[in-house]
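Good morning,

Attaching, inline, the backbone tokens for the sequence recovery test we're adding to the shared suite. The designed sequence is right after.
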């Protein structure tokens, strides 16, 4: 097969354009420093959270599993954490998009009279003004920075949800156990009342009072057992299990939360680690980068291209160039003013959240101190005295020195104090969990976060992009 001279000339004239398109195909842009560090961070977290792009093997849960296993299971399994992780991943990819040049354009022009007199294929590339791509990359990097801390917040919230349902479930079992022990005590008191009635030292009304109290406790136990089903459902949901999946095992061993830090250390840690504060600090960085980008709007953008007339002999090459004219001063001023206002709003939100964290910590610290006082009062004074009071009331009733009402009242007082002690212990664990996880931002040991995977602080998301 042969080509005529005209076709050969047109083909050879188009060769520079063809070679340019082939050369540009598959090109990669120049990565930014913040982009490289963000990808290093993602690789570190992915190795623990989604190695090879797949969910890692989850811990096998049994009644003998430690609380840490339940926390690890929930963090690796819960869809809320997974959604935040992939939001962060998407934000990192957006850094590459932001710092890349616009796609080149393949152009075509022809002059036609009675016949085609010229055929001009060409290639055009736009170039944003100096510094614009770098500024856009900084905006996207700051956004990915904030998305990481949204992921960290999701991990901590999931861990808190597990602990919250775990402690409530554990202590409701304690309440049921105490109620059943008191039921046995009431059965003994009813037997005493019957014996006193048979000997003529008491009326049948005492027996009825004991039975009424037994019925009341029986109803309370039924209510607690019913609410236990709700807490089981909450525990299952906290582990990221849906309704169709089998019920998880319940831990057989209680593990409390320890936080052996001074209040000053905890508050300092909160300001350094709290993921909400970190996310808002990233928002401030993003706003600053957006302001820098707004100032770059004054810089013109250029486009360069080349066309070749395939019908000319010799070949006619036509270079092309365009430049934008940012002449609308009110538009430029509005862009800058909007960016400045956004930055100030972000800084104000960060300051407000810092105040909020300090107030939350003060509230929880007060709650913890109040709880410690209540527990000490119950354990050291009220419970021992109420047990002694019940024993004295029983002895007095047997000797006819008091009536059955005082005996039942002593039993109710002991029950109330025992229940109050369980509630105080529950509140203590929840307060410590909230302080450590949601306020101080201290992650569980096996959480797939940068604090736990030994990331280089200079190359991590914990440093500004």
């Amino acid at each position: 097969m042969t080509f005529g001279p005209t076709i050969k000339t047109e083909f050879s004239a188009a060769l520079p354009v063809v070679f340019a398109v082939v050369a540009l195909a598959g090109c990669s842009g120049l990565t930014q420093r913040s982009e490289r560090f963000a990808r290093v961070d993602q690789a570190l977290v992915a190795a623990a959270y989604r190695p090879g792009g797949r969910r890692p093997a989850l811990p096998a849960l049994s009644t003998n599993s430690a609380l840490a296993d339940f926390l690890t299971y929930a963090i690796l399994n819960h869809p809320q954490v997974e959604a935040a992780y992939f939001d962060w991943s998407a934000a990192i990819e957006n850094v590459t998009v932001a710092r890349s040049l616009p796609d080149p354009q393949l152009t075509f022009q022809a002059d036609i009279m009675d016949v085609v007199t010229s055929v001009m294929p060409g290639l055009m590339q736009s170039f944003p003004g100096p510094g614009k791509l770098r500024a856009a990359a900084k905006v996207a990097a700051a956004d990915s920075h904030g998305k990481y801390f949204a992921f960290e917040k999701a991990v901590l919230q999931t861990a808190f949800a597990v602990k919250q349902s775990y402690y409530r479930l554990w202590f409701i079992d304690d309440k049921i156990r105490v109620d059943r022990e008191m039921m046995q005590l009431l059965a003994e008191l009813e037997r005493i009342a019957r014996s006193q009635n048979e000997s003529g030292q008491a009326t049948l009304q005492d027996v009825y009072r004991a039975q009424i109290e037994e019925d009341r406790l029986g109803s309370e136990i039924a209510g607690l057992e019913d609410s236990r089903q709700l807490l089981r459902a909450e525990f299952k949901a906290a582990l990221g299990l849906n309704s169709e999946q089998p019920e998880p095992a319940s831990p057989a061993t209680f593990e409390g939360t320890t936080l052996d830090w001074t209040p000053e250390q905890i508050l300092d840690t909160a300001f350094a680690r709290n993921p909400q504060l970190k996310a808002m600090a990233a928002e401030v960085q993003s706003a600053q980068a957006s302001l820098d980008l707004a100032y770059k709007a004054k810089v013109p953008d250029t486009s360069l291209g080349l066309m070749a007339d395939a019908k000319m002999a010799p070949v006619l090459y036509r270079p092309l160039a365009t430049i934008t004219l940012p002449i609308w001063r009110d538009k430029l001023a509005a862009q800058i003013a909007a960016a400045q206002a956004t930055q100030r709003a972000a800084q104000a939100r960060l300051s407000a959240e810092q105040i909020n964290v300090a107030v939350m910590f003060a509230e929880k610290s007060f709650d913890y101190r109040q709880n410690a006082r209540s527990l000490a009062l119950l354990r050291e004074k009220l419970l021992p005295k109420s047990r002694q009071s019940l024993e004295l009331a029983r002895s007095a009733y047997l000797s006819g020195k008091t009536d059955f009402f005082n005996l039942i009242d002593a039993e109710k007082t002991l029950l109330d104090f025992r229940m109050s002690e369980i509630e105080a212990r529950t509140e203590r664990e929840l307060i410590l969990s909230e302080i450590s996880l949601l306020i101080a931002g201290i992650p569980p040991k096996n959480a797939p976060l940068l604090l736990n995977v030994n990331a280089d602080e200079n190359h991590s998301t914990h440093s500004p992009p």
